[in-house]
Design a protein that fits this description.
With 258 residues, the chain is of the alpha/beta class. The protein has a single domain, classed as Rossmann fold (3-Layer(aba) Sandwich). Helix content is 45%, strand content 14%. A seven-stranded parallel sheet has the order 3-2-1-4-5-6-7, with helices on both faces. Helix 5 links the parallel strand 5 and strand 6. The longest helix is centred in the middle third of the chain and has 30 residues. The radius of gyration is 18 Å and the shape is globular. 44% of the residues are buried. The chain binds nicotinamide-adenine-dinucleotide.
Amino acid sequence: MSFQDKVVIVTGASSGIGAATAIKFAEEGAKVVLVGRNQEKLNNVSKKCGNPLIIAADVSKDEDAKRVIEETLRYFGSIDVLVNNAGIGSRTNILDKDVIPVFDRIMSTNLRAVVVLTHLAAPHLVKTKGNIVNVSSVAGYRVFQENVAYCASKAGLDHFTRAVALELAPHGVRVNVINPGPVRTDIVENMGATKEIVEATFERLRSMTALSRVSDSDEVADLILFIASDKSKAITGSSIVTDNGTLLKGNSMSPLEG
Ligand code: NAD
């Protein structure tokens, strides 16, 4: 699966799925653009990415999103693949006093930033007949308790993916979304959880899967590369689930009593 000299933008590349994805694209010969907020973490990832372009940016800010596309074009001259991976989680209930500001923050990163980046990158992807891979979640398929904002953002992202896939298909641009179940990354820690809570959360997530396991970032990164590659030339507007059977197990209680 060579991406020799393809220009690939990965948002949220400073840790987890984004870091693993950027490293794998670089291993396949891509010119990688690492986008994230933490310069030090980006520098660490960049050591495994050949000669990447590093852009410290908060994708939820329009001016930063604009800078991501402009700097990529100035440095590499084109865009072949956009991986919209940056995302955040938070505990939210509709009865919470502060639900609205938290909802706004989650939607700005998980959905609005993807819309802005897609809008800015699309004309350039049309030129290269490139493609977009969005990173959603099984939370786009089903709801989880205390996750009002996250679930809404990911369901919105899934539907946005399909709408844009339909619009860009005549231009030869594919747009897809990956829906992971639990993946061992910094996501829970980045929500402010202690080490103990992080461990307990991943243990609970593991118990919610049919396969009784949590994925690592490389598994999701491999799938992202496959979907971005020519091997997937027939795939557009698809949501690809990689969840260790979380959706299967969701409502799997026997209906039979006794
Ligand atoms: P992570 O916290 O390790 O990585 C997310 C990255 O996005 C971080 O580098 C973070 O700094 C960056 N980011 C967040 N907001 C940003 C912003 N405004 N601007 C720029 N960068 C920003 O978590 P991860 O698990 O690797 O998450 C990657 C994606 O996978 C997210 O969209 C997440 O919703 C999704 N996902 C994760 C899991 C899981 O169990 N880890 C499951 C399903 C979906």
